[in-house]
User: Fold Adenylate cyclase from Sinimarinibacterium flocculans.
Amino acid sequence: MALEIERKFLVVGDDWRAQVSRAARMRQGYLSREAGRASVRVRVEDDRATLNIKAAVVGSARAEYEYAIPVGEACELLETLCVGRLEKIRHYIERDGIVWEVDEFTGDNAGLIVAEVELSAVDQAFVRPQWLGRELTDDRRYYNHHLALHPYRSWDADAH
Assistant:
């Protein structure tokens, strides 16, 4: 089984921007409103596209499968079958031997910036950059599937 081990954090400040090595624009959508046992996502990232199936569990480790699909078909799926969509710019930062993915959301999720790090083990130690805020790994509201259906802009100010 393919296993993703990932931790997610709120980003604070702008110090991270000077460390970005590259960035990619992403559009993604989900093929079901509620995840059930799995979420199915379509993503277009620059000139490539993927179909992703991920276990719908909260936490740092979950099953994940990803397959390349033609960009034209992905765009068609996004426009015709996806019930929730979002857009973001993913910034890549290499630091202390780890690649951080900083997602700067646009559109209805503008104002939200989160950082994710993929690890090789649940208990893997890493150096925490100063621009990391509170951990969001166990907060379903910050998962992309939830953000696609319940955009950040629609949250009460107290919920942030």
Q: What stands out?
A: The CA atoms of residues 97 and 158 lie 36 Å apart. The two ends are 34 Å apart (CA to CA). The mean pLDDT is 93. The first helix runs from residue 71 to 80.
